[in-house]
Amino acid sequence: MNKYGIFYGFWTxxxxxGLEYFKIYLSKADGLGFDILELNCDFLMELSxxxxxxxxxxxxxxxxxxxxxxxxxxxxxxxxxxxxxxERGVEHLKKCLELINEIGGEILTGVTYGPxxxxxxxxxxxxxxxxxxxxxxxxxxxxxxxx
Length: 147
Fold this sequence. Notes:
Elements: E1 5-7, H1 19-32, E2 36-40, H2 41-44, H3 49-62, E3 65-72, H4 83-103, E4 108-115, H5 119-126, H6 131-146
Parallel strand pairs: 1-2, 2-3, 3-4
Helix pairs in contact: 1-3
């Protein structure tokens, strides 16, 4: 049987908000019959370790799987020509993976291959390179740095 999930952002205009907000979204997903709730790593990093453990336990009790997302930007774009920008991106993604492991998750999604922005801003950053070139460059850098 397929599992069905929803991104917590469906309900919110306030992306963060702390543990109680995330618990509200877990309750909503559970009440509507979803099997998965996708949360944003960036805001989960703001929670304490004990709060993240509490959130993980709440999801387990409700039998809701958690998946996670993040987005890169021009300051941590792993496809950047600037090494220090790419390094910030790798460090951010590593922190996300550590958080996911801590909470007991397995899946990271989002814009993890380049900067999240409108097309014009993105085109200004990458110039004439194609999307395929950007994707390949990002993948090569991740393999080089992470394995």
